[in-house]
Design a protein that fits this description.
By secondary structure, this protein is of the alpha+beta class. It has four helices and ten strands, in the order αββββββαββααββ.
Length: 267
């Protein structure tokens, strides 16, 4: 009797185990079917302005719930499209990162709608010692003379995107590139302002923090502003320190007595 009862318990346990395995397998299959999808990603780093080819792309499994908006699932839809930003290996291809359909490769394909590209001649100092790379944003500083023939230095353009340095639109941040020309993305009005600025003075690039969107608008600095003492320094107690008080020192050398006047050290 006891043996029969034990056999029934073993049989029921095996049956419940088989049911659990079947239900679990079905649940896993349903999840993989519903939540996983293929997303087209870059097989290597891709520079801005590059025309896409099949060997640059591959399909990768991606959770459907976290699939980026605008992602592609068919590699054929990306044939000959041009990227307008730098892509890293494994990064999903998105419509927002591509130039319009029919755009040819190169710099012209990455200029935003309504913008223009203008090239400015620079040297190793003006070009921020080669650290202004494609994708960075810079301010434009001019050194010239005002209407009173007084020297002035002022920021004339802010948050200007660097499209290319020399003829290179790729971004290699491992080392600076000292070049002779920088291509900037500007509006038509900014292009006119920049062209006038470089004809009346010396231009310099001022590198910005990528996430800094604040305005740096100032009145400019003139020679008189540069040379005058700051208000903070002029009112500082240390600046108006009283002169040291003379002290008399008496010392004896042998049988002779002498006196010496010394000044307190000014700390």
């Amino acid at each position: 009797m006891r043996d029969t009862k034990a056999l029934w318990m073993v049989a029921i346990s095996l049956l419940l185990g088989l049911v659990a395995v079947a239900v679990g397998g079905k649940w896993l299959m349903e999840r993989s079917t519903v939540d996983i999808s293929g997303v087209i990603v870059a097989t290597r780093d891709i520079d801005v302005g590059t025309r896409l080819t099949p060997e640059l792309l591959e399909s990768k499994d991606w959770l459907r719930t976290s699939t980026p908006q605008g992602a592609f699932q068919d590699v054929k839809l990306l044939d000959s499209r041009v990227v307008r930003v730098n892509l890293t290996r494994g990064e999903p291809l998105l419509e927002a990162k591509l130039a319009p359909v029919g755009t040819t490769g190169g710099l012209s394909g990455v200029i935003a709608e309504g913008k223009r590209a203008i090239t400015v001649r620079v040297n190793d100092v003006v070009g921020v010692a080669g650290f202004a790379l494609p994708g960075n944003k810079v301010d434009i500083l001019i050194n010239t003379k005002d209407e009173k023939e007084k020297g002035i230095s002022k920021i004339v353009l802010e948050q200007i995107l660097v499209l290319a340095v020399a003829q290179d639109v790729g971004r290699d941040e491992t080392k600076p590139k000292v070049v002779t020309a920088v291509t900037l993305e500007v509006t038509p009005e900014e292009a006119e302002k920049l062209d006038l600025a470089r004809s009346i003075g010396t231009l310099s690039l001022v590198l910005r923090n990528q996430v800094d969107t604040g305005s740096g608008t100032t009145e400019g600095v003139r020679i008189k502003d540069l040379l005058k003492l700051s208000t903070k320094l002029a009112t500082s107690p240390a600046y108006h320190r009283a002169p040291p008080i003379p002290q008399t020192v008496e010392f004896i050398r042998g049988s002779q007595r002498a006196r010496e006047i010394s000044r307190e050290r000014d700390y």
